Amino acid sequence: MSRYTGPRLRVIRRLGQELPGFTTGTLTRRPYPPGHAAAASGKRAPKISEYGLRLKEKQKLRFHYGLTERGMRLVFAEAQRLPGDTGRNMLGLLESRLDNLVWRAGLTRTIPAARQLIAHGHIMINGRRASTPSQRLKPGAAFQVREKARGREDLRVTANAPLLERPAGVSIDLDSMTVTVAQIPGPESVPFPVDIQKVIEYFAK
Question: How is domain 8-93+194-204 classified at the CATH fold level?
Fold first, then answer.
């Protein structure tokens, strides 16, 4: 299954959860699933099965971080191989992705925009252009915006007024547009509620 490119607001309406990395859209105007206008009138929503609940939690992560179904399964498999709690491992792997950290640093408004910035060669790591949005960084890593792109007004505006507060351990030098990742954001830094146990149950079945 390829990466989703359809209407983003429709997705968060179906999931009933705003996903700040996926879209800046909100549920304020239509806080009910698409095709369910009757829900606005106060009628009881249909009951969701246990499988449906697991699928919903998995889809939150998939859309927020911009992964394919196969990509999600690979992350789960890697999280299983690591020592410790699989759920925390999985969230830690997702939070350590370069595209996520570019977004969490406040350089872009969404993760898809961060992925585009990387794909266009505007992010440098150790003097070389980063070309893989999915590469993972370790504590102590740093990256910066390529010199030719540092004057872009959209980057400057977003970096000076990020939509979300930067997580602890992620800082930016606005003059050189250099981001230092002293600490990878932990599972508690995921900017929306997710029942990771249900995600684990989804992939374990």
Answer: Ribosomal Protein S4 Delta 41; Chain A, domain 1 (1.10.1050)
What span, in angstroms and rounded, lies between the C-alpha atoms of 196 and 140? 27
Using CA atoms, how far apart are residues 99 and 111, in angstroms rounded to an integer? 6
User: Could you tell me the pTM of the whole model?
Assistant: 0.90
Residue 42 structure tokens: 């106060």
Q: Which residues of 118-142 are buried (b: 16+ CB within 10 A; e: fewer)?
A: beeebbbbeeeebeebbebbeeebe
Q: What is the CATH number of domain 97-184?
A: 3.10.290.10
The tens digit of pLDDT for each residue in 21-46 reads 999 988 776 766 766 554 555 556 66
Q: How far is residue 198's CA from residue 56's CA, in Å, rounded to a whole number?
A: 9
List, by residue range, all CATH 1.10.1050.10 domains of the chain: 8-93+194-204
- Of 76, 165, 179, 198, the closest CA to residue 118 belongs to 179
